[in-house]
From TrEMBL:
GO terms for cellular component: nucleus. GO terms for biological process: DNA-templated DNA replication. SMART domains: EFh. Keywords: Calcium, Nucleus, Repeat. The keyword Cell division does not apply. This is EF-hand domain-containing protein. Residues 206-239 are annotated as: Disordered. The keyword Secreted does not apply.
Amino acid sequence: MAGKSPYHHHQPVSLSTDPKLNSKIQIRKMVGPMYDLLANPLGAVRLTFDKSIWSGSDPSSFDGKDWGAVDLFRHFLFDQAQLSQVPILNGATINWIKPNTLVRFRGMIQDMLGNEFYVGAYKDGSVWRTNKFMDISECPVEINSPEMRLWERRLLCCVPVPGLNSWAKSTSEVAVNRCMDLTSDQRDKRRRMDIEAIDHNDFSVSVDGFEDSPSAKRMREDPSSSQYQDPKNEGACSSHIMVPDVDRDSLPCLVKIYDSPESELKLNDVFEFVGVLTFDSELPAEKDDNDEFSNGFCDDVSVNLPPNKVPRLHCVIHRKLAVSDFLQNSLLVEPKPHSVKEARKALLTHLTSILGNDGVAAHFMLLHLLSRVHARADNVAVGKLSLNLTCISKETACAFGAKLGILIKNLLPFTKSIPLTVEYLNTASLAPKKDYQINRLMPGVLQLAEGSHLIVDETRLETGTLNSVGVENARLLKALAELQKVEYDFKYYKMEMAADVQLLILSEGKSNIVPADIIIPFEPSSVGSSEAVPVEVLEAWRGYLAAVRSLPHSIESDMQKMVENDLVTARQADRSLGSQDFSRWLTMGRLISASFGETSLSLEHWQMVKELERLRRDRLKHIINEKGWKSLDIYNISVPATTKTNNYYSTGDHLQMVFDCFDEDGDGKISAAELRSCITSVGGQLSIEEAEAAVSSSDVDGDGLLGFQDFQSLMAGSSASEEEKAEELKQAFGRYETEPGSGCITPNSLKRMLSRLGESRSINDCKAMIRTFDLNGDGVLSFREFAVMMH
């Protein structure tokens, strides 16, 4: 029933320098009586609810909406900058924080448990009351009574961020309940001081009509609603809320979300939730079967997260966190150009020292640490730069790998490592899996937050046999490396979830399980440094990485033309280069620019990209020659060199054996699909466009297949004249044209030709293939662009 509001406008008051006292002043100004938002948040919720009812609002309109309570907390936490005063909930502080107080929990959404109904509001006599942000649904009226309002909330199972390093835990975690730092006498003194403060003229407010209001009476009658409790009634330090042997790194939390769109919260996102803690270790693990509200309305999917083991947090405000939010605030100031260069130089010098003075590996390591997925185009994660350090034995891993791992843990907030052995692959649970018996998504090793770093140590891998679990785990790692996706197992179906994980692979040879964007042989010239790095230096490097990692990037038109010309020239000089190589170079250019704090690619940075690639390829050639291996020309795989002659493929017997391996169905012909399948099966990397390019360039009779002579010509390199090559190129272009004489290849014509060649591709895949070589961006391939692709 509408009536005169007891809440009057008051003139601004002078604020104390005590932030806790300020919180009381602010809420008194906004809702009337003074309540501590930290110690008694539910009191403020009830007061704002009463205020809305007094103003004539209908309780049925509050479902999914805020009546002013959230605005009150937002003003206190952010406008008044009091967020740091809210204690963080974890395995250590759960022993001391009092239930029904304001806390914050930082964690990753590990599982989404659906929605539940609860009694949001009910009429107690002539007075409306609310149960929002509470576990217990008090309701003295009938279930179907018009004087009861059923509302809905979402349930999230949240866990500490996997791999969260100790330095990244907020310093505010030491903030705990008052009972930790105040003796009983001190609390009594504090109470007297607070009461005296209320009587001070600066805090005097008119609350006419409110002293006799239902909420005021209820607050006076219910001692649990106020922070000013008799010491003997305070439960903050009593044993009934203790959880023995709780690991702060594994304490889950059931977060209940109110009034937020579903699109705001996604699986694996990292959030900071601020809300009301409800936790009691003496509550039964299962609900009473006679609980009419639980069984009638709340299909409690949280029954396997018992309230006596897992705390509940009724979220008032939440905000999504980025990697940079786990750094100290002082590190988030935008760095100056000179400080960026200094930090880059110092970090690169230390990386070089850690890696035994291998400067090339150090440069690639820096780019790797700066990489992130900044866009997704069809099935491509743009921006990733996984790194495979090869020539690392077990001994080298102990000497260098361990030091490198420690440094990475000290630089990045979320890091994990896995030992890639046959036993591990055969037994580990890498992908999350749904358990329908308990209705929970069981976590997997690869359920990681955005911005995580994962080290895969393959140096311990020995000969063995993978079982079905091992094969599946190997496939999952491969998909994570190539696509930045992880398949979640929901038993009846599998769902791909996007990831953004930096992958570092340590191996003796090239990893055939986890493909990498960059493969660099490790060449140390000295023992890695063991010198400790001062904390302030580490903090500067963390701030540097976080700041430049998020910089935008662009390429000016003049620079873009130069890059395109370089890519065309490189393709003509080395036909083995494909779209993956070009994409990697552009990613490296972006990261090199970012490492200097620049937002656009310069000529100097592009020259650095080409020089790093030259040094890397020289190392690979040296390793191949040193081990007696020859590289197949365009397939990025290798076969043992049994002869020292340069013209290895002139030996017909050897080439026939290779041809027979590629000819999977034994029909005497090699299709593009067979070519790609064979290359992939031996650990090589060959895209469909590269396979098609290889077939088309040597397919003399135009049937889209390679006979033995075609294959021999492909391996040896064509000796045809320039005119013959140009004619062959025109014939190949004609087979892909939309129609003869159209002068272009469209996604539809490419899809049609690929189907004839035994490779079924979607129209989006064909668009992506064309986009790689579409220099003018018109969505089709001209003859000139086709020639670039073929060369």
